[in-house]
Amino acid sequence: MADVTVKNRVALVTGAGRGIGRAIALRLAAAGARVAVTARTPDQLAEVACEIGNSGGQSLAVADDLTDRAAPRRIVDEVAGTWGPIEILVNNAGIGSSSDPRPLVEFRDEFWDLTMAVNVTAPYLLTKLVLPAMMAARWGRIINIASINAHIPSMHGAAYTASKHAVAGLTKATAREAIEYGITANAICPGVTATEMNDKRLEYDAQRLSTTFEQLETQASLLGRRLVPDEIAALAAFLASDDARAINGQLINVCGGMVMA
Looking at residue 57, which CATH number applies to its domain? Predict the structure, then answer.
């Protein structure tokens, strides 16, 4: 994947202020894409955009909140107005179970709705908005960041698990409808990855299981460690390239062997 190139392609990465989204934005920029980054936190976006610029790349920071159903239209319009149609969409923004983990019988309906709005509805709306231009150009890449929880459940994370199963379904539906236009849609399913969001999840699980954060880290994969965002970003950059044109409708696990299916 070292020679992956997406030179001059217009990419949008959501949830790009930190973690996996940030790593994907930097990797796409290094491969030659013009990368628009969006998230709720302007300061984090500015840092990512600055890092891309300092490395000789082109970036555009668009701060917005995907819980607002009007946000996808605003974001897509701003990117298109600056660089033209989006050619690579990475739906990475998400709310994890660590934000409010509870048993299903105690689950808050408001948190269920919020999780679905960000994890499912926002990717659906963004995909719907970018597809027409991709179809006209007969080229496009939709890359959804799902989770191994699209295959296996997360304890006390019903909304997250359900949302990632929905992302898997959205990916397959998109892949089936768009392939005749030269567009592929795939989902990356990360395992336990060292991010701020996952730190909170491990802290919760350590308390729940009466163990330590460090012990859970060693059990996070067959590698004896958590994954790092760059390991997810490498696959995202490949899927965005012409070399991945025959890969479509796949849920690809990057999990250190925790899910073998």
Answer: 3.40.50.720
Measure CA 18 to chain center.
11
Q: Tell me the pLDDT tens digit for each residue of 95-126.
A: 999 999 999 999 999 999 999 999 999 999 99
Q: What angle do CA 56, 71, 143 make, to 5 degrees?
A: 55
| Domain with 94 in it | 10-193+229-249
**The two structure tokens encoding residue 15:** 């949830």
The four Cα atoms 240, 241, 247, 248 give a dihedral, to 10 degrees, of 40
- Residue identified by tokens 């980054």 is 37
Enzyme catalytic residues:
160
Number of structural domains the chain divides into? 1
Kindly state whether residue 202 falls inside one of the protein's structural domains.
Answer: no
